[in-house]
């Protein structure tokens, strides 16, 4: 039987899903680690990016941070945190993933806030808004599409790279692939890989939907608009431009 | 009467042999003593990166040219590249593993897939940026398709091409490390080996720093190459 056939057999066995250390438990672990990491990164990066964006300072630093982060292998960071005094396991994984989620949130939020039309801001101030109100009611709504792009990039990246944590003693769905390699069980390897890939693609789709809902302004489905936008390739599929 | 236990045991509970051995983060003697091993892994890292980017570029260029000419091709090419991009590297290597086994080929195929999707997007962006009237004028002057590509498209799209090559190279250098899954991760073998050798920090740090330095060096080299092949851009960009 081919490895893909064996994978289907594995995935069709309900016991493999519900038992201890089964798929559901690993999935829960995977999602918890990812959610905490993204949340932590957002709490750290968002205020800094908004402060830098509204003041217009620190643009160079943001670019350097996002470029250098591209050169650092995820596996290296995961391993370094795992052998640090934090100890290997889910805490080290979460911290490493949070560090990786910061650059895309930081860069996109900064660019979004920075790109708000100065005239609009001027008009808001002329209407008597305080600087806090300008940020809250003008800058953030206008920057929302890019903020959501950053959040999407970071989340997909974290969900994808969380699978690497299994190589260095962490939890999550990557454990299945690692176990499969340990046991020379091709079906288990493919089953784990399928779960990881499907989870990543679903996360991407969910967040695309979420950012579509969250974006203010008239909603229009891309396929119902009378004039289809010209099909142009954007240079990078994700804003950070890093495969996961 | 004083119990016969060491001070360490009193302070911290269990005593392990590991607690006693020094485990520094940075250890120059590790690098000098294992220079041959490091060079071997570095060589593999560079070979895999070069192979992935060159093969990716060779496949991406005809695809991008085809996608620009034909709208029907452009849609699927972009859609497939987005999906491939979303697949995590661990899953990608695991999918290829049943076909090519524990070999460097497994890693190379996965890396080519990633560099291919980065390059095809950047190449297409570059080609779409070539003004239509410039191509029209060249065609009116009697340029054939080959000459049109070499003398009009390529020079005008070169900055976007080089940007794509730089992104693809830097991210490939980082991705090679995931190849440890099948035992061919270049410098990633040091990172993974150090983790498995009882958390040997010096080995892990050597592998990690090596990866970052290699990526930055490759980026600087490509930036230099970009300046060399686009001498006209220097006047505009100080």
Give a brief description:
The complex is a heterodimer of chains A (244) and B (238). Chain A is mainly α and 244 residues long.
Structure explained in plain terms:
- Chain A is 71% helix and 0% strand.
- Chain A contains ten helices and no strands.
- In chain A, α5 crosses α6, α6 packs across α8 and α7 crosses α8.
- The longest helix of chain A is centred in the first third of the chain and has 33 residues.
- Chain A is elongated and about 70 Å long.
- The C terminus of chain A is likely disordered.
- Chain B has 238 residues and is mainly alpha-helical.
- Chain B is 78% helix and 0% strand.
- The relative contact order of chain B is 0.13.
Descriptive keywords:
A: 244 residues; mainly alpha; B: 238 residues; MetI-like fold; 12 helices
CATH topology of chain A: MetI-like fold
The DSSP helix count of chain A reads 10
CATH architecture annotation name of chain B? Orthogonal Bundle
Number of domains of chain A: 1
Could you tell me the number of beta strands of chain B? 0
Report the span from N to C terminus of chain A. Answer: 31 Å
Quaternary state of the chains: heterodimer
Break the fold down into its secondary structure elements and pairings.
The complex is a heterodimer of chains A (244) and B (238).
Chain A (H helix, E strand, L loop, with lengths): L2 H10 L1 H5 L4 H33 L3 H13 L2 H9 L7 H25 L3 H9 L4 H31 L12 H10 L2 H29 L30
Chain B lengths: L6 H6 L4 H4 L7 H6 L1 H35 L1 H16 L2 H12 L3 H25 L3 H9 L4 H31 L12 H9 L4 H29 L3 H4 L2
Helix pairs in contact in B: 4-5, 4-7, 4-9, 5-7, 6-7, 7-9, 8-9, 9-11, 10-11
